[in-house]
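Bug report

Summary: C-alpha cells for CC-adding tRNA nucleotidyltransferase differ between web form and batch submission.
Environment: batch mode, default settings.
Steps: 1) Submit the sequence below via batch. 2) Compare with the web form result.

Sequence submitted:
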Amino acid sequence: MIEPRRVVDAALDGERAWVVGGAVRDALLGHAVLDVDVVVDGDPAAAALAVARASGRGTARFALSDAFETWRVVGPGHAWQVDVTPLRGGGIEADLALRDLTVNAMAEPVGEGGGGLVDPTGGRADLEARIARAVSDRSFAEDPLRTLRVARFACELELAVDPHTAQLARAHAPELDRIAGERIFAELKRVIAAPRIRAGLALMDELDVMAHVLPELSALRGVEQNRYHHADVLDHTLEVLDSALALEADPGAALGLEHADAIRALLAEPLADGLTRRDGLRLGALLHDSAKPQTRAVGEHGETLGFPRHDVEGERLVRSILTRLKASERLRGHVGALTRHHLRLGFLLHDRDADGILPRRALYRYLTTTEPVEVDVTLLSVADRLATRGHKADESIARHMVLAREVVGEALRWRAGETRPAPLLRGDELARELGIDPGPELGRLLAELAEARFAGEIRDRQEALAAARALLDPPAG
C-alpha cells in the first residue's frame, strides 16, 4: 500500500503546504499514519485534485465542508484519507496557534527539502513528557468541544492533563450544552472504544465534562441501593464496565474455553456508527441502570427497597440519550434492548426444575425475547452479576454463572442458526387444515408450535397438527 504521506509529498512538492496535527504527532510516536491533514497556502480543491491524481486509480475526491473549504481524498479501498484545508491566519505558526493542544499544533512542510518540524508551542516536548496542554487560554472558548477532546486524547495517548489546562477545561465545560449532539458523539465514541476507557471516563468526570455529555451517568452518584449491593449506582455501573472489559479480554475465564473464540468473534463484529458489538456492550454496561434514580422505591425509614421497572424505563431513557447524541436507530435499538433485558437471565434461575434443569421452553422464550442481542445481553448479565457483591453475593454469583455458561452456548448456537426450529407447517397450510382465517390466532398457534418443536415435544407434521388442534380446542374440564 502506498503511504498517504508519500503521496502528499509527491503531489504538493514545491507548494506552500504543510502536514499538520495528528499525522505529525503520530509519526513522532512511531505509529502508522493513515489519516493525514494538510493545510495549503492556496486553493485546497486544486491541492486535493493533485493528491488524487498522484495516488492513481481507485481514489475518490470530494468536498467535505463548503463552509471551511475542506476537501477529502480517500485512497484505494478506503485504506487511507487526506483532508486538505486552507491556511488560516496568514502563516503556518498563526494557523497552529488556533489549534487545541500543543501535541496537535505541530507541522512539517511537504515535499523534498521543505524544512524541519514547525513547533511554536512546544508540542514535541509535551509529547515526550506525555502532557496534554492547551495551546492558549482561549482554546476552549473558541470551541468548547475541545474540553471533551482533552479527555479523549489523554486516554488514547496516555497523556496527563496539565493543571492549568484542566482548570480551563472545567471553566468551559458548561458550554458543551450548546454543541451539536453529533459532534459530541463523534468524540465520545472514541472514548468508549479506547483501550483506556476507564481513564477517559474518570477524566471526563474530573473535568466536569461528564455532567454535560452524559448527565444521566453523573446522576447515578450517591444513589444508594439495597443490601444486595455493596456500592451506589454509579460505582456499581463502573464495576459492571470493569467486568465487561474483563469478559472481552478473556471470555473463556468466566464462560468456558469452548465459547471463548465465538464470543471474541461476535464482539469484534461491526455494529453501527463506527462501533463494534464490543463497544455496544461497553455502552450497555454504562447505561443499563440509568433509570434507577427515578425508579427508586424507598421504605418507611428512607431505605432503598429496589428499583421497580428500571429495565423498562431504562430502555426509554437510553433511547432518549442516544437520540440526543444523534446515534443511529440500529445503535439505539441495540443498547436499548441490552438495557430492557439485562435482568432476564436472572429471572431464568426461577424456571429451573427441582433437579436444576432449565426447561427447553423457558430457554426458547429467553432466546426469542432477547433476539437479536441474545448473546450480548447474556454477557451484560454476567458482568452485572459479577459486579454485585452485597448480601449472599458468593452464592448468587455461583448460581448465576452456572446458568450463564449453559445459556451463552445455547445463545451462540441460536444466533448461528443451528438450533432454530424450521416450521413443520406453513401458516397457510395450518389455516387450511384447521379451517381458520389468517390473523392473531393463527400467529399464536405458529408461535406455540415453534416453541414445542424447540422443546422436542413435536417432531413431524402430524404431531404439529395434533398439537395445533389441541391448542385450538383445549379439552374440557
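Above is the batch result. After comparison, the two runs are identical; trailing whitespace caused the diff. The CA atoms of residues 229 and 254 lie 21 Å apart. The longest helix spans residues 393-415.
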